[in-house]
Amino acid sequence: MPTPTANIRNFCIIAHIDHGKSTLADQFLLKTGAVSERDIKAQTLDSMDLERERGITIRMHPVTIYHEQDGTRYELNLIDTPGHVDFNYEVSRSLAACEGAILLADAFQGVQAQTVANAFLAMDAGLKILPTLNKIDLPHARPDFVIGEMETAVLTDPAEVLRVSGKTGEGVDELLAAVIERVPPPAGDPAAPVKALIYNSHFDTYKGVVVYIRMVDGAIKPGQKVKLMRTGREYAITEMGQFRPEPTKVDELSAGQVGYFTANIKNIDNVNIGDTVTDAANPTAEPLAGYKEPKPMVYSGLFPVNNNEFEDLRVALGKLKLNDSSFTYAPEVSDGLGFGFRCGFLGMLHREIIQQRLEQDSDLNLVQTAPNVTYEIQKKDKTVVTVHGPQDVPDAGLIEEFREPIVRISFLIPASNIGDLMGMCTERRGVFVRTEYLSQQRVILVYEMPLAEVIYDLYDKLKSVTHGYGTMDYEVLGFRAADLVKMDILVHGNKVDALSLIVHRSNAERRGRVVLKKLREEIDRHLFEVALQAAVGARVIARENIAAMRKNVTAKCYGGDITRKRKLWAKQAEGKKRMKQIGQVEVPQEAFLAVLESDD
Description:
It is a single chain. The protein is α+β, with helices and mostly antiparallel strands. The protein folds into five domains: 5-182, Rossmann fold; 195-279, Translation factors (Elongation Factor Tu (Ef-tu), domain 3); 298-370, Alpha-Beta Plaits; 376-481, Alpha-Beta Plaits (2-Layer Sandwich), CATH 3.30.70; 486-596, Elongation factor 4, C-terminal domain (Alpha-Beta Plaits, 2-Layer Sandwich), CATH 3.30.70. The protein is built from 14 helices and 32 strands. It has an eight-stranded antiparallel β-sheet, with helices on one face. Strands 2-3-1-4-5-6 form a six-stranded mixed β-sheet, sandwiched between helices. Strands 22, 23, 24, 25, 26 and 27 form a six-stranded antiparallel β-sheet that branches. The chain starts with 7 loop residues before the first strand and ends with a helix.
C-alpha cells in the first residue's frame, strides 16, 4: 500500500564540499533502522569506488527511509548531493525532486562559497530551507560565530538553526522531527493521470536502463505501459522499487514518492534526464518543465593510447553519458594522436573524474589533450560561429570579433589575504566587482574574469595564497569581445594542428616560448637543424632551434693536405642542405603530451 502524500517528505542535503553531508546521511540511516549498526560503513551512500577513494560525493544518491513520530509512520525520501562546484548540475537536479533542503554548515569552517551558491539554488527552486550546523562535537567548533555568518550570508533566522553532529548522532532526532514539521508534503494527486519526472538513470548489464523517477501525479504498477514524452516511445514496466538503501521491489509507486523502474530499455539514448513519464493509455496533457540543459564550458580531447580501443571507448562513453547528462562527446581525428573524441565538461574536476571513471570501469588507457573553453566568433558577414578548439578558428581576415566566455567568480577568503588575491586576479585579466565582509576575519571578493584564466590552476593558486582557507564558486555570465588570436606551432616549416592554441594577444609570446621549450626537449635531434616556431598569422613571435647531429667525416684523415678535409666538409654541407629541404621531422607522441599538459 503506497504511503499517503500527507505522510511523505522529500528533502536533500546541500553544503560545501567536506562539510559532512554523507556522514549526516549515514546517521539518518542508522536512526531510522534502514541500516544496522553492524552493516554501516562511512559514507554508506557513496557507492562508487572513486567516491570512496577521494572522499567526495560525485553523483546524487537517493534513499527512502521510514520514521515514526507521534504514532504516525512517515516516508522520508533523502537525496545526498555533491558539494563541488563542477557537480552543481547534480545539485539542481536533486532540488527539482524535493520540497525541502537541509543547508549544512561546518561549525568550525563556517559559511563557504558553495554553501552560499547552493542556498540560492534552493531558494530559486522554492524549497523550504532548514539551516543546520554540523560538527558541533569538534573541540574547536565556533557555533555562535558561524550562525552569525549564516545570518549575514544567506539571511537565516538564528532561532531556526539546528545543531547536530553527524559523527556522534547528537541532535539528529531533533533534525528528523524538524524535517517532518517544517518541510511541506508533496502536492500531487494520486487519482490524476500519471506524471513522473526522470531525475537520473544508470545502465545495468542485466536489466537495461534503470530509470530514477519522482512521482508527481497518479500511480504506476509493474506490467503497466508507460510513455516517455520526449521521444514518444512506449515500454511495459518489468520491475519497480525504491532505494532503502539497497534496491527494494514494491508493487506500486504513487504521487509524491521517489523510486525507480526498469522496462527492458536496451538503448541508452532513449532515456533523457528531465523527461516526463506518463501512462501510455491515459497520458497527461502537459509534460513537466524538466531541466535546463547544462552547457559544457571546458573542452578536451580523449584518445585511446591504443587506436584499436576506439570502439570500446565509444561504448564506454555512451554508458557514462546515461548517468551524467552534463557531459558531451563527438568523434574527432588528430594528426598526432589518431582517432578519439572531443568531450565537453562542466569544469576541471569533472574532466578528471570522467577520465578516471572511464579508465577504472572500462579498463581503457587514455590520453587527454589540454583543456580549452568554448569561444564565439562573429565573422565579417555577421554570422556567428561557436568554436570548441583552435582547429575551428577561421582565417584572421574573416573575423570581425573574437569573443570569450566570462564568469562571475566569488572568493571567500581570510581578510588578511585580500591584497595577494587581488594581485592574482589582476594578472589574470580580472575586473573587480565588489567586496562583502561576512565578519572581521572573512570576506567575499567578487570578480569578473575570462573562464580560460580560471580553468587551469586558479583553484590551486587560491589554496596556496590563502594557505588552504580560501574557497571559490563561479557562474558563467556570457561571451564578451577580447583581443584573442590563434597561435600556430610550426615544426620544420610545417604547421602542427594538434599543437595550436587560442591565446590573448598580450600573452601569446610567453605561451609560445613555453611550448617551444617543451617541444625542444621532446623531439629527437636529426642530421639537419630543425626550426621550431610559434606564429600568429604570418608573424613569427618565438623560435627555438634543435641543433643538427654532428658526424665527424674527417676522422679517417690523419695528416696530409687540408684541401682533402675541406672537400669532405663541403660534401657534408651539401648533403645537409639537401636533407633539410626534403627531410621529414617525426614528432613523437610524448612531445604532444608534454605540450598538452597545462603551462607551468
